[in-house]
Amino acid sequence: MHPRTTGIVFLVAAALFAFVYIYEMRGAPGRQQAEEAAKRLFPNVEADDVEWIAMTTSDGTAARAERRDRGWELTEPLVFPGDMFALDGIASALALVSSEAKFENPQPLEVYGLDGEEREVRFGVGGEEFVLRMGDKSPVGGNSYVAVGSDAVYVVATYRINALRKEIDDLRDKRILRFDTASVESVTVTWPENQVVLERQDGSWRLRAPLDAPADGTTVDSLLSDLSFLRASGFVDEPISDREAGLRPPDLEVELILKAESEADPPQRLHLAVGQSLDGETRLVRTARPSLYRIAAERIGDFPRNLASYRFRQLAKFASSDAQRLEIVFHPDGDQAVSVEPVTITATRGDTGWTATPDPFKPGSLSSLVYELSRLRAEGILADSMGPDELQALELAPPAAVYRVFGEGDEKLAHVEIGALREDWILARTEGHETVFRLEARFAERIPLSFEAYRNRFVAEADDPDPNPAPDLDAEDGDLLSPREESP
């Protein structure tokens, strides 16, 4: 073949390949989008542009919702915050509903189940009103009949309009209190036997009543989180008395004071009252709204109703990966306290894990022990202070065991003093504080309370395969396997 002819053939082939690549491959997504847009029944409507929606719900209630600055709000049959996900889903379904087929010369609307206005959805965009009427399902395929206006009848995929079939309660916001937990400055919790008042101070929580003391931040943060996620399972809109609602007296009341949005605005106050269980399964909740919320009866257990739960109970808290050195001092008890010297165990972290002297620990025990210390939290408080004789009787003066954890540069991360084991709890204190805490007895499985317990249960035996290096459980907050899942 002549070189010139070969060149022309090559150029034609290259051009053809470029056309196929650009049109068929790169252009396919764009053409598909254009085809889908052409089939949309409301081609110029976007979900975010829908300003209001009016419909008869599947339980026969005429409802209307309007988009506000802070989200959707029901205006009919009552004024109530709208469910953002349900109403956004309806707006999206209306904007994206598209035709699979169109009847150019349709039969009467009743043939398609399109003659009833109760299956009609009206909505507004930019001052213009649109109407979609839903009919029966088609005999074959997963499709349904719909009408736009009064003439055309379309077939659409049923799944595209399922979001339009909602009961009235589906359109109501089931959040009982709407607030940002970070904006809460004060919390008052009241139950029949007592009341606690808590304030946020320099980023930490403090008890103000019935006593002035540090509060347990974990408990308060969990309380606020549970309140912010509390959802209703139903509503009671008809007026009933507090006695009928189980709210005289309530089992729990919570008042929140939120930070003002600006200096000119007053702080916002939110109030919630949880009633007594009416039937063993449900409780009613009253807020500032006329309607009552219905919740499961057992949800009351999410909210502590005893003073001890709100007291500060964190004996130690640090990232276990920050621990570099551990000291354990065992003091002799009883008559030996004077004649026998304390025993000190030292453990350090190296490249291969933890090692201890004078005796190696069983595999995994050291990293498990440090992990337990890193989040050591008391179950309760025995006393705010005790005299020397009482502390001695409880093996806290001197303590039966002292645990000190150090980080880089000998920074002290924790100092915990362990006392006697009494029935199902262990006594403990922290350095510089007089409060006597109660630990759950299960900590004795991970933390040796005496030199004898250390020797009998934590020291490695001669036939242990690898007595010193142990796999480190260095997740800062227990992200890895908890040592409780590992045999001591």
Question: What's the short story on this structure?
Answer:
By secondary structure, the chain is of the alpha+beta class. The chain has helices at residues 3-26, 28-39, 84-96, 217-228, 307-310, 336-339, 365-374, 388-393, 451-458, and strands at residues 50-56, 62-68, 71-76, 80-81, 101-103, 120-125, 128-137, 143-148, 152-157, 184-191, 194-201, 204-209, 213-214, 234-236, 252-258, 268-274, 282-286, 292-296, 325-330, 343-350, 353-357, 380-383, 401-406, 412-422, 425-430, 436-440.
Describe the structure.
With 488 residues, the chain is an alpha+beta fold. The protein folds into four domains: 3-38; 40-171, Sandwich (Immunoglobulin-like), CATH 2.60.40; 181-310, Sandwich (Immunoglobulin-like); 320-485, no CATH class. 19% of the residues lie in helices and 32% in strands. Strands 4-3-2-1-6-7-8-9-5 form a nine-stranded antiparallel beta sheet, covered by helices on one side. Residues 467-488 have low confidence and may be disordered.
